[in-house]
Design brief:
Helices cover 63% and strands 0% of the residues. It is elongated, with a radius of gyration of 16 Å. Helix 1 packs across helix 2 and helix 1 runs parallel beside helix 4. It is mainly alpha-helical. It contains four helices and no strands.
Length: 84
Amino acid sequence: MKMNIDDKNESPVGRPTKYNERTIARLCEALADGMPQKSACVAAAIGVTTLNEWRDRYPEIEERMSEARERLREKALQTVKAAF
């Protein structure tokens, strides 16, 4: 009997996914702190390949990552303003 698996759910075989709010929050926090994507993945305990798969599977992650990078730009701008 073939199982009907939702496109966003994981297959019943293999490791459970690490895709959850805590992992995404750690990833975005690292990006907002200025870490490059690879280092942010290490901080979130995921691989770069995993992140790329998630970006395809969960398009909402792009917005979260963009917001994190924008927070970094805002912090940098505040630092520059404070220096003058």
